[in-house]
Write a structure and sequence with these properties.
single chain, 70 residues, mainly alpha, 2 domains, 86% helix, flat
Length: 70
């Protein structure tokens, strides 16, 4: 979770600056994601997939509630 100050700074950035920050964070994270034994890497990516699937499911449920409430 971002601090209110960090969130404010990010909101004030241009689109190009936010993209640059995103790409920098990806460049820093990828080596860490692929570090470890093949089993560790597999488990790490499986966890990411489960978390993404759960987040997507919750968003779809919220969209469905919004459509039925109209």
């Amino acid at each position: 979770m971002l601090s209110p100050e960090a969130a404010k700074r990010i909101r004030e950035m241009s689109v190009a600056d936010r993209l640059r920050l995103t790409l920098q964070m990806i460049d820093e994270a990828v080596p860490l994601l692929t570090r470890g034994s093949p089993e560790q890497v597999r488990r790490r990516f499986e966890l990411l997939r489960r978390e993404n699937d759960e987040r997507n499911r919750r968003m779809l449920e919220a969209f469905a509630r919004t459509k039925t409430a109209q």
